[in-house]
Model the fold of this input.
Amino acid sequence: MRLLLDLDGTLIKLGVDWAEVRRRVEPIVGCPPPGMTIFAWLSRVEDEARVREALRVVEEAELEGLRSATVDREVAELLQALKEGGCRLALVSMQGSRAVEGALRELGLEGAFDVVVTRDFSLSREHQLREALRVEGGGEAVFLCDRGEDVEAAAKLGIQAVKVRLADGSVKEALRSLLAKLGRLSQP
Done:
């Protein structure tokens, strides 16, 4: 089994004020339409120099947000148990590689993922998922994510996606369920 996971909001909650980041990025790249994420907007901006400048602002906020990130150690333990049970782990993230490395360090999961695909590869979740699948090879895949747009991107590629959140504990429920499927944990 292959398990693909999103990072922020799913495995860890970065202490980033995204509304403030948006306010800081808008003078650089303009105002995205209501409801569009910063990353979806940046993927449409054609001026690469402005996109790089905006991403520097975002990265600064992400690295600062690591200092006040919400971490649930049980999530890391469940992921380790899945890996030990033979599950291949892939991380896809709209965060940059430096923020992802810091988050994995916070979780104690350095080296746990077989594949890590960040926004440094692509600002498109669909492209990120496709790359993770390419590297991982065949077999059943499940994607745990926290946004409807992520579920839609997975559906385009025929990947089963489950919308979960760190904040409400649903990510732990999903991980426990996958462990039970692997026969490593009995359901309560």
Summary: Residues 18-68 form one domain.
